[in-house]
Model the fold of this input.
Amino acid sequence: DDELVVAVDRIMAHADARRRMKVRANVDTGEDAGLARRFGAEGIGLCRTEHMFLGERRSLVEDLVLAETPEEREKALAALLPMQIEDFTALYRAMAGLPVTIRLLDPPLHEFLPDLTELSVEVAVARERGELTDEQEALLENVRRLHEQNPMLGLRGVRLGIQVPGLFAMQIRAITRAAATLAAEGVNVLPEIMVPLVGTVQELQAVAAEIAEVVQEPESLVDGAPVEHQVGTMIELPRAALVAAQIAEVAQFFSFGTNDLTQTTWGFSRDDVESSFFSAYLDHGIFGVSPFESLDTVGVGELVEIASWRGREVRPGLKLGICGEHGGDPDSVHFFHRAGLDYVSCSPFRVPVARLEAGRAAVEHG
Ligand code: PEP
Ligand code: MG
Done:
């Protein structure tokens, strides 16, 4: 057993010495960040903050989104801020000295709201019994207003951040305050604030303006200056890839969201893949493997390359990474190396595979 461990360590050391790309992990808790670090992760490439709002906190998001007055909204935001500060502090501590990319909220909204059908039935029953309250009726109205036929193409990511006043500011505040507090303690923190589902530079500009304001708040300062941080964006819509030159004027980094980019480029749902027409496509040899597992290098990959070229033409030092599931897929890792990306980010358990493949890619392709 010891011999095996030594042999694996030597192989990994070879790969690490040769690879050009860094390997980060997709994690949302301090605990998983520690695990990722033990697997050799060199930072967090994606913290999905929506995962921090499951369980008991779910109702706070519901309150926030359904709030009808600024007071109601402020109350929900005030409750969430200290929780988020605690969340990010744990991530920074676990990843001290390494970059931590925190993505602003990108929830599938339908998972945070009451189910419209269930609620409609409840209201109908209550009305029948003459027990319907104004509150119940207002809630149904509200949920109906937010109901979408295609939630994955709807009020997600930056769109929600722009629609709900104060939501992104609360998260930005937590990101920079937690960082400033730790930096003052001498912990080396490198937060990267990432905006999801951007399709036009105007969206990113709107959020960048909020960031610029929040980092000037006293609690976000270190020695009188804004805490060190970067601002970047996901590239996960074909339009974002095509207008990358404009987006790079504002973004210091791009992180390719190849899950959504695959979904939106092909025009089929990532959530229905298994149950839908995929097996027929595999049987007919139209797909050798699902494009959600292994990157479609000529289609989706071309968009990755276009965005990389156009972005770097405007901003030569633009940092490029990928945080979709493909970050841990061997063939895809080779593609990302050839495309000139700086890092791949994947689930902690795939980090060793990604390190190995990034090393092999460097040897094979130079
Ligand atoms: C992606 O779209 O590839 C991505 C990393 O974001 P998410 O999977 O959370 O949509
Ligand atoms: Mg996405």
Observations:
- The pocket of phosphoenolpyruvate (ligand 1) is lined by residues 46, 48, 106, 236, 257-260, 323-324 (CB under 6 Å).
- The mean pLDDT is 95.
